[in-house]
Structure formats: structure tokens, C-alpha cells
Amino acid sequence: EAQVTQNPRYLITVTGKKLTVTCSQNMNHEYMSWYRQDPGLGLRQIYYSMNVEVTDKGDVPEGYKVSRKEKRNFPLILESPSPNQTSLYFCASSPSRAGDYGYTFGSGTRLTVV
Amino acid sequence: GQSLEQPSEVTAVEGAIVQINCTYQTSGFYGLSWYQQHDGGAPTFLSYNALDGLEETGRFSSFLSRSDSYGYLLLQELQMKDSASYFCAVRAWNQGGKLIFGQGTELSVKP
After folding, report:
1. Confidence at residue B97, expressed as pLDDT on a 0 to 100 scale
2. Which of B78, B75, B95 is nearest to B34 (CA)?
3. Does B28 lie at the interface with A, CB-CB under 8 angstroms?
4. Does A61 touch chain B if contact means CB atoms closer than 8 Å?
5. pLDDT in the model for residue A97
């Protein structure tokens, strides 16, 4: 089944404790992206990657890191999480940067930082 | 900057037709997309308009007018399961193909 897999689905952590949210897609998509979703703010892009070893900042990159060492994986790293990073996170992938192919989203990771 | 505006809430009854509008301000984009999201689940891709006009997919249709910077999603024969949030989105030419979302419209379908 074609899908984007994120882990974990739920995570509660403490301020300053490094964490990684994994994302993997099995569709050989070039384009991958991370979004956070907050009430009243919609979906905002954190980072994106157009291919292996090619990443760039989205609208809200502060406090996050990403890497794209393999085409299928695009982990999101929070080096020192803070409470304002409590949010619902989605990973997404697409065959290309053009619009005619929709994004496929993962099931989401609900992160709480206390 | 680039922005998309949608109504925050729409309510309709089962069996009816509802239109969710999206107006945008963006300098260049590949086309207008629509996504559906149920209760914090994964957004799912519904439709895409690259060119002006109407695209129909079953009960759902989507429309784009680039000259008016306007689009809409039309849902016919509404069912209770259509209660969800609907997002319009564009992929910008000059920002690495970033997908920019509207704030979302929460559709409530009543019996």
C-alpha cells in the first residue's frame, strides 16, 4: 500500500529533551515536507526537501532540523523542544514540485512539550 | 506575500449542495488544490485545477478562475460523512513548490 508513515503518533516530552519524529514514504517520491497544524493558524510548512541532500526552510523552521540522506526518509529533529512546539505534525510527500500530483500525508504526530 | 482566504465555517443539511469559496493573493502558482481533513486526521487530496474551469470527480467539483483569483469546491448530495475541514492550497512557483494552505473551512452536515 502506498503510504507515508510517521512515528510516533503521540509523544509527550519535557522541555530540552531532544527528539526525532520519523517519516518514511514507499512511493519513490522526490518531494517531502513537514507541516505543523495549530488551531486558528492552519497548516504551516516547517521544512521541505526536493530530493536527497536537498532541503530548505519553510515558513516556521526555527527550532527544527531535518535531513534527507535517503529518498524515502525525512526525519524531523527537535534539538531542544520548547512548549511552543506543542502541535500536530504532518509529514507529506509528492512525486514532484508541480501541483498536479497531490500530497500524500502521514497520519500525524501529536507532540506535547511540558 | 501569498495568502488564501476561506470562510471559517459552513453548515448545510444532508442531501443539499454546498460551495466553499477560496480567494487568493499569490504571484504565481501551478494550480489550486483541495484537501479534506477529518478530526485532526491526515489531510487527503481531493482535486486539482491547473486551468480555469470546472473539474468534476463524483459528488465533488472544483472550479478555478485565475483572472478573478478565485476558486471553489462544490459538494453535492451531502452526506454526514462529509462533515470535515476543507482546505484550498496552491503550490508556488518561486518557493520550491511549497504548498500554501488556506486556513480551512469546517463543514458541518446536519440531518
Report:
1. 67
2. B75
3. no
4. no
5. 63
